[in-house]
Amino acid sequence: ESIKESGLSIGGMVEHFEHVLPKSQAEISVAMQRLTRAGYRNESAVRIFYGYKVFIPLLLCALALLSGVAKFSPFFIYASCLGLGFLVPDFWLGRKIKTRQKKMERGLPEVLDLLIICIEAGLSLDQATARTAEELQKAQPELCDEFGILVREQRAGRVRSEAWKHLAERTGVESLRNLVSVLVQSEQFGTSVAKTLRVHSDTLRTKRIQQVEEMAAKTSVKLVFPL
Fold it and tell me: Cα–Cα distance between 22 and 50 in angstroms, integer?
């Protein structure tokens, strides 16, 4: 808890730096979308993000000055510190997005299995989604977090197909986009949702196995140079 509180206090301090950086509404929209995909939905997340884009370059310049590195080539060192420090938050955020998306892709078959069980037990798709979000909260927190938002949107009155499409746009995960397309088509043509989900789950597992086999096949080629 103390580490979390210290992180929040540092974020609050850095938040004041965001006023220094000029930015357009389009840039803020893109940053908000990326932060949402990384799992940061707090209102202050955008301000903290832009605050770090100012704070980190200044910190690197101060470290270069105190360490004496800037004496060798001041212009190059300070320019490198400013450029690198400005880009570090973007690199870090991109890494967080990829890590979160990869976790959702790997956990989707398990979530679909529980959805199928709930639907075959007699629950509707909406009820099954809510139950799955509750049951797998510890095992698949990223996906269950997104499913929880989906459930709340539907309870607020959003149409099911629009809520699922919003889920795909919000996460940016290709397998979720395919799932949404399959569910929308299943709802339009009146086919069995459970059977559709089972086929999609099997397809995801087969795709995962093929990716692992591909990585294993590339290993021998990659080992040629070091050997």
Answer: 10
CA distance 133 to 61: 46
17 contacts: CB under 8 Å, gap ≥ 6: 50, 51, 52, 54, 55
**Gap between the Cα atoms of 173 and 67, Å rounded:** 43
pLDDT in tens, 161-217: 899 999 999 898 888 898 888 888 887 887 788 888 888 888 888 888 998 889 898
Q: Which amino acid is at 110?
A: E
In angstroms and rounded to an integer, the radius of gyration of the C-alpha atoms of the chain is: 23
Where are the extended beta strands (E) located within the chain? none
- Residue 117 burial (C-beta neighbours within 10 Å; 0-12, 13-18, 19+): middle
Q: Which residues contact 74 (CB under 8 A, 6 or more apart)?
A: none
> pTM of the entire structure?
0.79
pLDDT tens digit string along 50-79? 888 888 888 898 888 888 877 878 888 888
* First vs last C-alpha separation in the chain: 48
